[in-house]
Write a structure and sequence with these properties.
The complex is a heterodimer.
Chain A (H helix, E strand, L loop, with lengths): L24 E11 L4 E12 L3 E7 L5 H8 L7 E6 L2 E2 L5 H7 L1 E5 L10 H11 L4 H14 L4 H4 L8 H14 L4 E5 L7 H18 L2 E5 L3 H6 L2 E6 L2 E7 L2
Chain B lengths: L2 H8 L3 H9 L6 E2 L6 E2 L2 H15 L4 H9 L4 H31 L7 H13 L3 H19 E5 L7 H14 L4 E5 L5 E4 L2 E11 L6 E9 L8 H18 L1 H33 L1 H4 L2 E6 L13 H9 L3 E13 L7 E6 L2 H4 L7 E3 L5 H6 L3 E5 H6 L7 E11 L6 E17 L9 E4 H10 L8 E6 L5 H10 L3 E2 L12 E5 L1 H39 L4 H9 L4 H30 L4 H27 L3 H5 L4
Parallel strand pairs in B: 10-15, 12-14, 17-18
Antiparallel strand pairs in B: 1-2, 3-7, 4-5, 5-6, 6-7, 8-16, 8-18, 9-10, 9-13, 9-16, 11-14, 12-15, 13-14
The chains are: A alpha/beta, B alpha+beta.
Amino acid sequence: MDVWKNECCGCVVTQRLRGMCMKRIEVKEISYSYQNKYQKIEAVKKISCDFEPGKMYAVTGESGSGKSTFLSLLAGLDCPEAGVILIDGKDLSGMDRDAYRREQVSVVYQAFHLFPLLTALENVMYPLELERVSRKKAREQAAEYLEEVGLEEKIFSQYPKMMSGGEQQRVAIARAMAAKGRLLLADEPTGNLDSENEEHIVELLKDLAHRKDYIVIVVTHNPEIAGQADVRITMKDGKVVSVNKQV
Amino acid sequence: MNTKQVEELTGITRQNIRYYERQNLLEPVRDTENAYRDYSQEDVRRLKLIKMLRMLDMSIKEIEQVLNGNLPLKEAAARQQEALVQQQRQLQAAIEICGSIRKEKSEDISVDAYLERMEHMRKGGSIFAQIVDDYRQAAQEERSRKFYFYSVQAVHTAGMLEKAIQEYAEKQRKSFRLMKGGMYPEFQLNGVLYTAACTLEKDMTTKNVRTRIICSRAEEEKAAGNRKRLFRGCYSVGLNIRRHRFKSVLNVAISMMTVLVLLFYFGSLTSTRQQFEELPEAIPVRAVVMNAIGDLKSSLLIRQQVLDTVYHSPYIWKIKETAELVGESGPDSGEFQVLGVNCRDAAYEDGQEEIRWIEDWDWEHFLKGENVCIAEESFLEKQDKEAGDTILLSLEHYRLTELGNTLERAPLGTKEFKVIGIAKERDEMLPAVVVPINAVKQIYQENDRVYFASSLAFTVKEPMKLNILKEQLKEAGLSSVVPELTESNVGSALLIEDDVFIQAAIELEKNVLLLETFLPFMLLIVLLAGYLVPHLLLQGRRSEYAIMRALGMGRKRCTFLFFAEHILLAIAGGCIGAAVGFVFSTAKPWTAAAVLVLYLCCHTLGAGAAMWMFGKMSVAAVLSHRD
């Protein structure tokens, strides 16, 4: 045992400015459909559920059950046709959704969606520079986030095509952490990863939820990942069929 | 060396190293490109010293003073030793208490008695006071870095939040300055930068929902000011252009080619128009008065009415008029031709004559003169005269016979002329004496004779109005040549050599019309190119756009960045094309500039439409590959 203490509080993000301290997300009877001139598909039908910080939620269901659509609604990328999403009591549809995406929510995708012509460091710097942090400070903080997700410094100057899937997803998570928000949405984050990397990513997400008080919502069809979540929400045909709190 | 190596050398974890850096105990050199830390041997030594001093439980603040040289190590060690001895004394009390408790015979001890005893010891400076002080200290530090207050009224909008913070500042007697508005405003209180967020919470006593406004000190540097934002925008655009090199070069090349094609088109149009306008000079249309059957161009009788019409017509220039007379200068001189002329070309058609003028005489003065003449050299020798001498001429003119179809000679009068020029004989066709036409007309007038010109030729000034001219001359009595008519010496027909001109004019007019008709299509093509080029080049960057939007960049800003990138490249390509066109072709600078402006206007319209369509994409669909 070390004689002297581990001084660091273990959370670099507390040194940075924190945006809104999100307490609760309430989803009330939201619906959304895709339509063209030939047909209309109801992807989400009257879903209601709540989310609290400090927990990891898994949204599971078969393909076409509306999970990703639900996630895009929570991310503010689409607007529900009916119902309301309340972020700490405030209606999301009445908010500036660009500011919401910038300051309150981050999304991690199955396809990683890193900027292909930016290095790992520059990818993580991007949301900081959007917030007008100076380039020098953004570089320093981005480096810290990348270290926090377990990436070595040799990765910092690599482009996404030179990284493995696991490394790319870690960069995506670091970029999500660099954004101010405490709501992290992950759409099949381990879909393109092997089992070892899958485990690491899930651990990272759990760490964000439990240690750093994030609201982490993971869309997955992998039952093992769903089993590790605090709350499992099952969807079918656009509806929530069950909400199970794991012990 | 990197962090991992330092970890291994010092035995200090990465997290602690970062912590010491944040506490300003350590500042490794950073790589400017990628922010890597590069620890030196000095940094490693420093870390080991920090570790040692922390193991001695020295405070961070004191260690900072030691490292900065403000506090000598020995003195710091002495102070720490004293503090540890003090602690030891404080702990001793606790050890004594523990020892006493152990010695108690039963588990049932008098807690009150011990508490009283410990309270007595606490007043003497026990360990418990330290903990209370720690709390106070941490609370104080936290208070300055972060604080919160409750709003009297509910806060729903950015304006209400700003008002609540302003009221708080007034209550605390602190100066308030808003730097950035919104639901997460940035503001200064007494010059210190903070940011705020609000949350709803339930008051446990009143059970009412209230708004807590949490203010945290902002530690990042903010790049403020519109100029810096503009600079950052330009910098981002420049970086993107560099990153997408191939597409950027392609964009520039397409713009350059388009401008070159436009320059070529407008150059062709301009030069064709110019050729059309300069056609009368390039292919002059000449006309000559002839007799009715068209076999005589001279020795004609051309009436004054015809002469008046020709001289007064705005469509005619370069008129050549002659009047043929027969002269005698004495009984032995013989007859010779005297030719009255209105211009040099009327006297000597091929222009190869050599005239020796006396004094300062020249053609201009000769034609204005009255009693002057140019004599042919051999003629003058026969007359035994020289330049400057006068010569008396008896003149006869031609007139129609009574039958009206042939010419006869009749006396006109005598006149003395001064020889002011000698024409060198080249062939036998040179007239013996050349006089100004005005002198001839004067002789006719003096002798009360009706003047007729012997020949008349001219150049049509405005061939496009030939038909009008023909009408005018027809009214004056000149018609087309009709070979079937009776032979006559009357100058009543006009022969116009306009075949070549008309053919060329028709061809050029057709070309100009074709090019002008094509102009709207050219502009449409440029407009379409302005739409298609960005539309196609940006297809591969849809996900980049979607990611930027997903990260919170506004649609307008995002679309504008892409648009600015494209337009800058179009401007660069257009300027290169205009410069190349100007250098390698006959395009004038203003033509190249006008074409460039026209191209940019059409291209910008098309590109704007393409950007508008691009910005309408569903971000969610692109990111989830549903598009």
